[in-house]
Amino acid sequence: AKVAQTTGQKAAYTRNKAFSKQQYFDWIIKGIKDHGSLSRKDIDQLLWDRLSDLYTDKQKKLKITNLLSELRDKKTIKNIGSDNKSKWVLL
User: Fold this and answer.
1) Cα 54 to Cα 40, 51, 69, distances in angstroms
2) DSSP, res 66
3) Which of 12, 44, 84, 85 gets the most CB atoms within 10 Å of its CB?
């Protein structure tokens, strides 16, 4: 952060630095609370631009998959749809 401040790269630093895992969880949970459910497409749209610019599209997709899996494993959310028509809801 100090180097970014010195070199005038504050915005790039912030875009490249990922948010905490908990922040991603909070956005997913809030989105589901606000709307009752979210599709995978909705969740991708919610998180995509918040993931580090250093990630490739493939890495972003995998990161979101891992976040959803972790929330599912913690019994926080579940998918009541299919793989093609996902519908994530709170438990």
Assistant:
1) 22, 8, 22
2) H
3) 44
Residue 63's identity, in one-letter code, is K
> Residue 4: helix, strand or coil by DSSP?
helix
- Give pLDDT tens digits for 6-47: 777 666 666 666 788 999 999 999 999 999 999 999 999 999
Q: What is the Cα–Cα distance from 68 to 7, expressed in whole angstroms?
A: 37
What torsion do the CA atoms of 30, 72, 25, 21 make, to the nearest 10 degrees?
180
User: pTM of the full predicted structure?
Assistant: 0.83
Place of tokens 């100090």: 2
* Helix ranges, the chain (H): 2-7, 10-16, 21-35, 40-47, 57-73
77-79 and 88-90 strand pairing: antiparallel
Residue 66 has pLDDT above 70, yes or no: yes
